[in-house]
């Protein structure tokens, strides 16, 4: 060791422990404040900086552990230790949102759980308003991590704690309005009421136990599949009036987020046993979290950008950044769920033509249409008839209050510049039909489009079903069997587990049959052929085929095209709704739930003898 290093060590040892600690805290705080507001979607640009911040907080955490007694004697409070752990949890969750690596989410859970079990924020929280606020914010952040990690038992435990803490704070700090925190409680309660145990009987995430392993997916012939693309990134955004959400995560985007993750298997877990966590941060919990560890032989989760009520400029910026980072074999999934924008009173063809002739947004941010329509109501549902079906075509999706004009509108033409890269677009809207205009107008790569029905059949207890359980088309894509049951008015309490498992097996078999038909078809469009090797996109496509078959054959939507989903380009006739195979898939499930009379089947479909009468048309 050099003389200079020895002198530095000596001078460092002469500085009081508490002073060295607060110097580290100040350094960590400055770095944290710089990254806290950085966008989640610009991932690669900030990776190096994030690792530097992780390193500083690792040093800080280790230093306070090694010098805990001296620091306590110098005045260190328990909540200050909790604040460090909470910051580390925030860093891990933020890095998960940027990378979609499940290990970061698990690390965030570990730190938050340690804060909860050791009650770092509890002492003195009812005497100190700022400390009470810290505990409330911690519980809300931990709730979000548990939701995404699908730890439902802990979610319910945290909700109860949050309710009690808000009530206690209202009694203790009577001069303070806790209206915002009461709203947080209402949001999570409403979210859990909609996202029931029935909706989560089967993991929304891709499970190797229930879904085909990527290695065994049917091979698509080379002449048909000119490329073999993989889903690398996804942009997920949803906005509907009064929709179910928690913080900025809506129910629809939550389900899509879950559906684009691998279900952790835990079988490859090696006990941490006190080892350091990822990036050197010391693991805080002795609990075995093996269920959170994914199979390392699987590809990484697709990266996801979740946008809540984005402005057009923000949406465009996110798409541009992701397309710039997209690898050569990558596909970008764009999921948009929103109501149609301001009505124009003209037919669809005219609207689409005008959409491409101009951006339909004036410089002052107002829509080009000056015509009044029912949609100008602050409540979109007020102008809708039964089944969330509007009687006009609007030409765009509205991602915000209607009074803000075109700044909150996303038009089909807004997506066109990004078709220089492969896009897989899912539109859930009463204006989905206008997005057909993308097909044929691409700038380099043909886009794959899955479009919801323009009219959504009401499910649940009222016509405003979207507000109670989410969007039906999205449920079909993320939890198809539950969507089938909801369509029939069947709830979780009405189904025995043996019946559900049998239905799940039948549906899985039908989906695999459709997948094989597509893979071996001579006339499948290359747009679909090139994504059949990706397990996530393949699953969406097969569930779309099921959704289309069900809604086409359902008595109340039979021969009503406005209730049927569409895709662009067209799929082979072999998987169309009226084929024998598609009708058999539906009739098998209908029979299992004693609902064959709710569907219209052709004479060619052999039904069991005891239900033949009254079920054919």
Automatic annotation (TrEMBL):
InterPro entries assigned to the protein according to its UniProt record, in alphabetical order: SCAI (IPR022709), SCAI_metazoan/Viridiplantae (IPR016607)
Pfam families assigned: SCAI
Top-rank taxon, per record: Eukaryota
Low complexity composition-biased segments: 366-383
Region of interest (Disordered), residue spans: 360-386
PANTHER family (UniProt xref): PROTEIN SCAI
Name of the molecule in the record: Protein SCAI isoform X3
Gene source species: Gossypium hirsutum (Upland cotton)
Gene this chain is encoded by: LOC107937741
